[in-house]
Amino acid sequence: MGALQPGLPNPAMLPLDWPLLIVDLKDCFFTIAPHPRDTRKEAHTRFQQNAKGLHREFQISIEEARAIVRACPVCSHHNGGSGMGVDV
């Protein structure tokens, strides 16, 4: 990562008399756990679990697991969102 990042001002545009603090972003890394009701959707989004995997891991109905997979734009584009295939 360079010094110029999207959404941040160009350093040449900062006034000379402004106080400036430089922070290395790798030192600011932290994680926030998702809300418990969002863990199933987050698990599919991150790991692309299929409906059977979601059903087994989170003890939810197979219909709810299929709905999560169907809502995924990647999965629904590839196989119609059935959610029963491998890595879908």
Automatic annotation (TrEMBL):
It comes from the Eukaryota. Keywords: Endonuclease, Hydrolase, Metal-binding, Nuclease, Nucleotidyltransferase, RNA-directed DNA polymerase, Transferase, Zinc, Zinc-finger. Residues 35-76 form the Integrase-type domain. PROSITE patterns: ZF_INTEGRASE. InterPro entries: Integrase-like_N, Integrase_Zn-bd_dom_N. One of its GO terms (molecular function) is zinc ion binding. This is POK18 protein. It comes from Panurus biarmicus.
